[in-house]
């Protein structure tokens, strides 16, 4: 198959940043996705409805002429988040609440270090069927960085689901075979997103031959066995797994740094990279469900009505992209991608 037409996809996890960054990030995401769940971990966290509405207007103001794109807003679960905002969230166009363990990743400094403090918020979310979107890693410094997702599942998420059995949950950017196994064991209102880079990279790509900072993300990429489990889940046709890029732009100076920033920018070639994975797995017929159907079905939103067409036509990714008066190094910089959007 050299050409593929299917329902326009959505991105169920993306970082757009703010200010001058939006002109690039919004364009990159809107070029192929109709909608996107927008992460709220800005320097000043989006932890109330007013802030979310203001941020949404800024995103739409950055949308290039001729593009249609709907940002789906979320709230940052900080200790300042109010139960009243949870009760009013869906009427205000809020589609989820993001839980970051404090210190787990970029922009998580306002996250939670004691989950019992947010039980009233979680109870209100359960009552209102508002999804909890989780960065699933523990931050205990004694836990190996490659084990933090699995430990989070066993020590935090399993008890959380027992306490709030009807709470809708998305375990985002899963990176391990353990996470796949866990999601398969849960009820249908617990799901997971999978990134393109976790389907394409292992820790060898990060570490062998020298540290490659532009492959550094959190959760960190794992083993070949973990990658194979993620691919199997993505191409399975199981609606509990759907697309979420976790595309996260950082200036080159923040990546090529003594303390490298966590995040990989993939929005410039997102759906094309997923197509590569599904093509290599001989499962292109499963791409539409994963990218276009299962996400909106989980969030209770209508499926998109327009189509997108990809063609097998290798193209070269730029070595860098202008970003905030400097440069950003995109995923696959200076290398080729096998699929290309033609409509």
Structure overview:
The protein has helices spanning 22-30, 49-61, 83-89, 119-128, 148-163, 177-184, 196-200, 203-207, 224-234, 252-255, 270-280, 287-299, and strands spanning 3-7, 11-14, 35-38, 70-76, 94-99, 132-134, 169-171, 190-194, 241-243, 307-316, 321-323, 326-328, 336-341. It is of the alpha/beta class and 343 residues long. It has one domain (3-341): Metal-dependent hydrolases (TIM Barrel, Alpha-Beta Barrel). It has an 8-stranded parallel sheet with strand order 2-3-4-5-6-7-8-9. A 3-stranded antiparallel sheet has the order 1-10-13. Helix 1 (22-30) links the parallel strand 2 (11-14) and strand 3 (35-38). The radius of gyration is 19 Å and the shape is globular. The relative contact order is 0.15. The mean pLDDT is 96.
List keywords for this structure.
343 residues; TIM Barrel; 3-stranded antiparallel beta sheet
Q: TL;DR of this structure?
A:
The chain has helices at residues 22-30, 49-61, 83-89, 119-128, 148-163, 177-184, 196-200, 203-207, 224-234, 252-255, 270-280, 287-299; strands at residues 3-7, 11-14, 35-38, 70-76, 94-99, 132-134, 169-171, 190-194, 241-243, 307-316, 321-323, 326-328, 336-341.
Amino- and carboxy-terminal Cα gap? 17 Å
* CATH homologous superfamily grouping: Metal-dependent hydrolases
Domain tally:
1
Strand content: 15-25%
CATH class: Alpha Beta
Which structural class is indicated by helix and strand composition?
A: alpha/beta
Largest beta sheet: what is the strand line-up? 2-3-4-5-6-7-8-9
Q: How does CATH name the architecture?
A: Alpha-Beta Barrel
The quaternary state of the protein chains shown equals single chain
Enumerate how many helices there are, as a single number: 12
For the biggest sheet, the summary is:
8 strands, parallel
Shape: globular
Please estimate the helix content: 25-40%
Tell me how many strands there are: 13
Mean pLDDT: 96
Order of helices and strands: EEHEHEHEHEHEHEHHHEHHHEEEE
The CATH topology, please?
TIM Barrel
Poorly predicted regions: none
How much is the radius of gyration in Å?
A: 19 Å
């Amino acid at each position: 198959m050299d050409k593929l037409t299917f329902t326009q996809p959505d991105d169920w996890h993306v970082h757009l940043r703010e200010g001058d960054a939006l002109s690039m990030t919004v364009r990159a995401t809107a070029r192929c996705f109709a909608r996107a769940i927008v992460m709220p971990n800005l320097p000043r966290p989006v932890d109330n409805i007013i802030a979310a509405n203001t941020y949404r207007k800024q995103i739409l103001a950055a949308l290039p002429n001729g593009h249609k794109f709907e940002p789906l807003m979320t709230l940052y679960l900080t200790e300042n988040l109010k139960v009243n905002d949870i009760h009013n969230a869906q009427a205000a166009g809020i589609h989820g609440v993001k839980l970051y363990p404090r210190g787990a990743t970029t922009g998580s400094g306002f996250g939670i270090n004691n989950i019992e403090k947010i039980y009233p918020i979680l109870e209100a979310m359960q009552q209102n069927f508002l999804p909890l979107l989780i960065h699933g890693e523990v931050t205990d410094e004694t836990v190996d960085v490659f084990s933090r997702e699995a430990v989070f599942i066993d020590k935090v998420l399993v008890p959380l689901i027992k306490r709030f059995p009807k709470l809708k949950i998305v375990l985002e950017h899963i990176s391990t075979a353990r996470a796949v196994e866990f999601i398969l064991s849960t009820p249908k209102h617990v799901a997971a997103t999978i990134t393109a880079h976790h389907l394409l990279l292992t820790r060898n790509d990060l570490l062998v031959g020298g540290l490659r900072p532009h492959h550094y993300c959190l959760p960190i990429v794992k083993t070949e066995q973990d990658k194979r489990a993620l691919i199997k889940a993505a191409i399975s046709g199981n609606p509990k797994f759907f697309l979420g890029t976790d595309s996260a732009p950082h200036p080159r100076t923040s990546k090529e740094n003594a303390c490298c920033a966590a995040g990989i920018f993939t929005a410039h070639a997102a759906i094309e990279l997923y197509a590569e994975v599904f093509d290599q797995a001989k499962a292109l017929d499963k791409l539409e469900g994963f990218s276009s159907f299962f996400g909106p079905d989980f969030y209770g939103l209508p499926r998109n009505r327009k189509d997108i067409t990809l063609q097998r036509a290798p193209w070269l990714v730029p070595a860098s992209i202008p970003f905030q008066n400097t440069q950003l190094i995109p995923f696959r910089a200076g290398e080729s991608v096998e699929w290309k959007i033609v409509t």
